[in-house]
Amino acid sequence: MLIALLIILAYVIGSIPSGLIVGKLAKGIDIREHGSGNLGATNAFRTLGVKAGSVVIAADILKGTLAAALPYLLHVPIHPLLAGVAAVIGHVFPVFAKFKGGKAVATSGGVLLFYAPLLFVTMVAVFFVFLFLTKFVSLSSMLTGIYTIIYCLFVKDPYLLVVVTLLTAFVIYRHRANIKRIINKTEPKIKWF
Question: Is 170 a domain residue?
């Protein structure tokens, strides 16, 4: 029973629509009606600006971190990665935003920030290298996921490898429209990096 409640709590934490809340507070807008229409950090940066976008990405990361920490904080015998995955699902399909959320990148990163902080730090560095080289946030996110799988092949943690592989596949799936735009050369590039 406690495990089920923890999973539900992790999902609810993940469901907190950071982009929607920050958009309303910072600019008085629903970011789902602007830019890509996505609740995630990339649309928040593009729609709300750097300050508000930074708040959104920090909140989205912290959702994953908090959810992964719940088993330790509440002394519930469940693997922290499972609680983290529940938060990622909540982020992508948020109960508080008509089940239309982000693309799972920042919240997945937050899970790894708690469970494998060194991996998280290297992921951030790799993401920015890819971003500098490609100028595509979406492609950088997907390539960072692939890097994460490769990293996990050298770590003796089968749970981490399985979860990272599933999350990366999910992130790539969530970016399928971006992949089409990259192929068609219509995906927007960042201009500030």
Answer: yes
Q: Strand, coil or helix: what is 184?
A: coil
- Closest Cα partner for 41 from 130, 147, 127? 127
Domain tally for the chain? Answer: 1
By C-alpha distance, which of 109, 138, 127 is closest to 43? 138
C-alpha pair distances (Å), 85 with each of 2, 12, 50, 189: 17, 12, 27, 29
Tens digit of each residue's pLDDT, the chain (193 residues): 899 999 999 999 999 999 999 999 999 999 999 988 888 899 999 899 999 999 999 999 999 999 999 999 999 999 999 999 999 999 999 999 999 999 999 999 999 999 999 999 999 999 999 999 999 999 999 999 999 999 999 999 999 999 999 999 999 999 999 999 999 999 989 887 6
∠ CA 35-36-41, nearest 5°, is 90
Alpha carbons 6 and 174: distance in angstroms, whole number: 25
Is 192 a member of any domain? Answer: no
Nearest by Cα to 13 from 83, 70, 67:
67
Please report whether residue 71 resides in a domain.
yes
Range of the domain at 82: 2-183
